[in-house]
Amino acid sequence: MEAHQAQAQLVPGDRELPPVQQISIAVLALIVIGGIYTASHLPRHVPQGPTIALLIAAVLLLAANGVLLSRIEQFNWRVFRQVAGWVLLAYAVIAGMLEYVFIYDHTRGTQLLILTLMLAVFAVNIPLLLGFSVARFQAPDASS
Question: Could you tell me which residues come within 8 angstroms of residue 67 by beta carbon, excluding any fewer than 6 positions away?
């Protein structure tokens, strides 16, 4: 009976892990809300206070998520880096295309900066989320 319980504890998906996925979804929601808020005001002046507040909250949650992720022991970092790296490449291309659209549409100044930072948070958050979502179900690295 004890051998069965010990074996059950080794199942990667059943381990107790920090709420990385939930926090990533909260970050995504804040960025999407900020984007919708901004788009609802364009091409007129966009009140920047709410957008900046949403961006700051998203950055703080993303930073907290990075700290939580870095403290995980017994994790398959090789798989995480592999998945997150390729997703980051794809989202860097997507973010670059969206940045081009902002510039092409004559978005300037502070509004362009805010939208660029929101894109950067988006482009880092999604690879973190997908890398974690895959690696959490893999057996931990032997070096962990």
Answer: none
Whole-number Å distance between alpha carbons of 39 and 49: 15
pLDDT in tens, 28-44: 999 999 999 998 987 78
Query: Are 20 and 65 spatial neighbours (Cβ–Cβ below 8 Å)?
Result: yes
Residue-wise pLDDT tens digits, 67-123: 999 999 889 999 999 999 999 999 999 999 999 999 998 888 999 999 999 999 999
Half-sphere CA count of 137, side-chain side, radius 13 A: 5
Contact 94/123 with Cβ under 8 angstroms? yes
DSSP run (H or E) holding 66: helix 48-70
User: pTM of the prediction?
Assistant: 0.86
Q: Let me know the angle formed at the C-alpha of 110 by 107 and 115, rounded to the nearest 5 degrees.
A: 65
Sequence-distant (≥ 6) Cβ neighbours of residue 40 within 8 angstroms? none
- The torsion angles phi and psi of 10, rounded to 5 degrees, stand at -85, -10
CB 138 within 8 A of CB 13: no
